[in-house]
Amino acid sequence: MIIAIDGPAASGKGTLGKRLAAHYGLRHLDTGLLYRAVAKAMLDAGAPLADEAAAAAAARALDLSSLDEQTLKTETLGEAASIVSAYPAVRAALLDLQRKFAACPPGAVLDGRDIGTVICPDAEVKIFVTAAPEVRARRRLVELRARGEPADEASVLADIRRRDERDRTRAAAPLVPAADAHLLDTTHLDIDAVFRAAVAIVEAARGG
Ligand code: DC
Description:
Layout: E1 2-6, H1 13-24, E2 27-30, H2 32-45, H3 52-60, H4 69-72, H5 75-84, H6 88-103, E3 108-112, H7 115-119, E4 125-130, H8 133-146, H9 153-169, E5 182-185, H10 191-207
Parallel strand pairs: 1-3, 1-4, 2-3, 4-5
Helix pairs in contact: 1-10, 2-3, 2-5, 3-6, 5-9, 8-9
2'-deoxycytidine-5'-monophosphate is lined by residues 9, 31-32, 35-36, 78, 81-82, 85, 112-114, 163, 167.
């Protein structure tokens, strides 16, 4: 079974993806980490983020086994990832790797922006997670503070809005729900309620 989860920044799709994967015995890939790792490689090499060819080369050189969530989940890398992920050459370089990951038995949960639309258009279950930007900003703030990153609510909210806008309006694989995705608005739900709602969606899709 392949479960595709898409949604905007800080919508809770990563946490949901992990829990669904554990529940169904599937592998999990947070595809945002791929774009964050490309951005990190660029910044580490001192390459300008505007250099699409260098970003594509970094994407081709990416090693899935070396993704370190702790190092990659910073605000700076989120913003930089949003920039490099708009390049078609970067997306093309990461396509096969994601599809191969999804196709390996017993299946997988992938979360990102274009899983249901581009990477796994035939996924058995597609969930599009949303939440009000203010709620996402507050959740992200709690995460950042727990990791000791200095952050204030207004700048986190501004960052989320800027990233939403860029991810939704880019030409290559923009953030849009697949036509057959189930919408899950988590604005008023805690993580347990989100998980239960998602399991209900998966069970209904499997039953049907
Ligand atoms: O989910 P995240 O915040 O870790 O993603 C960081 C950026 O990477 C996001 O702003 C857009 C990009 N991204 C993408 O374009 N496609 C994906 N499947 C996942 C992330």
